Amino acid sequence: MKRVLLALLFFALTAHADVLALRAKRMLDVERGVIVNDPVVVIDGDHIKSVGREVPKDARVIDLGDVTLLPGLFDMHTHLSIGRTPDTKPADYYGGPVDHALQASMNARATLMAGFTTVRECGANDFIDVALKRAIERDVAVGPRITPSGYQISMTGGHGDNTGYPPGEYELTPKQGVADGPEQLLYAVRYQIKYGAEVIKLMVTAGVMGYERTATARQFSDEELRVVVEEAKRNGLRVAAHAHGTEGILAALRAGVDSIEHGSMLNDEAIAMMKAKGVYLVPTIYLTERDEEVKEEMPAVMREKGAAVGAAARRSFRAALDAGVKIAFGTDAGVFPHGLNAREFSTMVKLGMKPADAIRAATISAAALLGVSDRGALASSKLADIIAVRGNPLDDIKTLENVVFVMKGGVVFKGPAAPPSGPPAAPARD
Ligand SMILES: [Zn+2]
Predict the structure, then answer these.
(1) How far is the CA of 77 from the centre of ligand 1 (A)?
(2) Are 24 and 113 in the same domain?
(3) Which residue has the higher pLDDT, 185 or 291?
(4) Are 86 and 192 in a shared domain?
């Protein structure tokens, strides 16, 4: 009897072996920018144990066949709490925070299924990004790893404020990120951090999607910008600066931000300063094509601003690329539907970026901007965040728009080894 029990115990242990061997025809070594044939990625729990060619004895094997393995992708600029996915219907009502949170959980799922296993939020109302992160970590919702920002920090009438309404309506407070002067700004930043922000999003110029007259006007004084950046740094947080116009970009760089979002009007001085300080450009450049596609649906003021900023942004992207400015992948998803994030790649490549560099921007470089070393490459001891595409992304960057396999932390969410009914909120861990 004892022997039977032992045998059963042994069977149970081996049948539920934590070690998994992932096989495929190809793997992209993002560090070297080359394809490796017939890789075996060995996964132990939520981490990669080794990358080689041997299948360990007793490992459970998932053979994905004719696909290319890559590290899970990063999007450094998302708004999961706004917008929707291509397959959800537009709302014909004004939703509140609960409506937006429910939609956000669908948006997060679509983002993960598109191969994005890590996102950095760049402005979310009602701390929906914080709640979403927690829900995902507890297997209550399905989605990527999230670095939440809370509300974006904006001056009164700035790009994070509600504009276009009569006085007294939809006015925001420092708790919602709208603040003026050092005292209010300190409170606004501390409030975001208190409720879970892990990055501070700072609006340094006007923008396209709002009723400000120009998209490029500088916002905040030097002193105000400095106060925000210093307070973020004291708390160990990085600062992402939304900036289209040159004057705002330069002011943000002088204040010590870590990334310039959009960066539509970079001049030589800005490029030199970004290089000297190691500041990243997060170009969100697919938007410049998207604005063209949907211009009929946009209010005239936004359409005109979008067209003007778009042409400049494409020139700036090329100039930054030529100068060797650090570039991290980001999309502004939410402004366009979630799950289409990978379209950014082909715009980057169209504008002159090498496919391997575009993929590095969404893996190694994004991890560096985020300040994490536990992911971004397929290598031993990294988190088992792994995706697969059918073709070779170095030959056809668009293959990244059709991700066929997604694993996050060793759990399969999409692909042949995923549960047949699709990923449950709490994925089965066998
Ligand atoms: Zn944005």
Answers:
(1) 6
(2) no
(3) 185
(4) yes
